[in-house]
Amino acid sequence: MSDFYKKILDNNKKWVDEKLAIDKDYFKDLSKGQTPPLLWIGCSDSRVPANEIIGAQPGEVFVHRNIANMVVHSDMNMLSVLDYAVNALKIKHIIVCGHYGCGGVKAAMGNDSIGIIDNWIRHIKDVYRLHKQYLDSILDEKERFNKFVELNVKEQVFDLAKTSIVQNAWKNGQELSLHGWVYGLNSGYVTDLNVNIDSNNQLDEVYQLKF
Questions:
Q1: Is 45 a catalytic site residue?
Q2: What's the pLDDT tens digit per position in 198-207?
Q3: Residues 90-99: pLDDT tens digits?
Q4: 25 pLDDT more than 90
Q5: Interval 33-91: pLDDT, tens
Q6: pTM here?
Q7: What gap in Å lies between CA 37 and CA 176, rounded to an integer?
Q8: Which end of the chain has fewer CB within 10 Å, C or N?
Q9: What is the pLDDT of residues 79-121, one digit of tens each?
Q10: Contact, 37 vs 60, CB < 8 A?
């Protein structure tokens, strides 16, 4: 058994002991169910832990993560998480959280082939194409990279609002708000991008579904 593997098993035991020392019924209560108010759609990057960033405890955040925090309308994994969060858990908020320095977004700015991930990166490239004139006008590469990260988050929030799952919830009068954030790896702070949607009236008419 490798030292790393043994260490993470030992860490689990230590974590359990620490929780039980505070509350002997901690895991018993946790096992009874979950009623999180929030769905977090974030990046798979190991440096962006959803719960820790917002000081949340287990049971308080329902999480979906993928490379570059994408909302792809044909992704059954994401749609299944979204459907369960909205229709079963009745969450009230969905946050799409990107992060500065995102490798997926950086890859979408270039032309190198990485492998099968190229097919995923293409969705991010589509965001660049939508905002090409603006992004190409930014001469400083780091600033352009940061703006691309922000625009990608904003587009994913709008893509969430376009789904039938979210629009049906709004049609039924369910309280549901969508938000876009970017996390700073070098600061720990999140930036609210002020893209907050709680009705399909905030979408172009072509995306407004009639039920």
A1: yes
A2: 999 999 999 9
A3: 999 999 999 9
A4: yes
A5: 999 999 999 999 999 999 999 999 999 999 999 999 999 999 999 999 999 999 999 99
A6: 0.95
A7: 10
A8: N
A9: 999 999 999 999 999 999 999 999 999 999 999 999 999 999 9
A10: yes
Set 64, 102, 123, 159: catalytic member: 102
User: Whole-angstrom Cα distance, residue 198 to residue 202?
Assistant: 8
Q: Specify whether 99 is catalytic.
A: yes
Q: What is the 3-state secondary structure (H, E, C) of 51-75?
A: HHHCCCCCCCEEEEEECCCCCCCCC
User: Of the residues 47, 112, 140, 204, which is catalytic?
Assistant: 47
b/e per residue 11-23 (b: at least 16 CB within 10 A): eeeeeeeeeeeee
Convert 140-206 into a string of H (helix), E (strand) and C (coil). CHHHHHHHHHHHHHHHHHHHHHHCHHHHHHHHCCCCCEEEEEEECCCCCCEEECCCCECCHHHCCHH
47 is catalytic: yes
Instruction: Please identify which of the residues 10, 25, 29, 43 carries the catalytic annotation.
Output: 43
